[in-house]
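User: Structure please.
Assistant: Input sequence and predicted structure:
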Amino acid sequence: MPGVIVMISLFGTSMTGSNLLYEVMTGSYERVLATPLDRSAILVGRALKEFAPLLGAHGARAARHLLSGMMLPLEAGPGWMQVAARFNPLTYMVDAERVLFAGRFDDAAVLWGVVAAAATCVVGLVVGIRTTRRVV
């Protein structure tokens, strides 16, 4: 289940980017830029729209026994993958989700997951705003 939530997050934000690219290419995004909204608010709003399905993820928690074998823990992978995963922020997010689904909120993995998620959001927002300013 944690892997599925991360995949929904990744695909949702990538859809935000592809929809934005389409609007830039067709010229409709210029009308949005004419509004008095801050560019960061435009990007954050679009990304949050894609996260709405995650709000219903708590209902899937009841079915986690059906989905538990969908993704294997990192320890089951080869050594090189375990090393590479330590540099991937998504590893920390998935670890935090596993701990949270187990009902443990005081685990250090939760803190590292929040830090990784916040850092990923900040980097994505900075890159998105810079790219938008350059393109448009």
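The helical segments are 2-26, 29-33, 39-50, 57-60, 64-67, 79-85, 89-101, 108-135.
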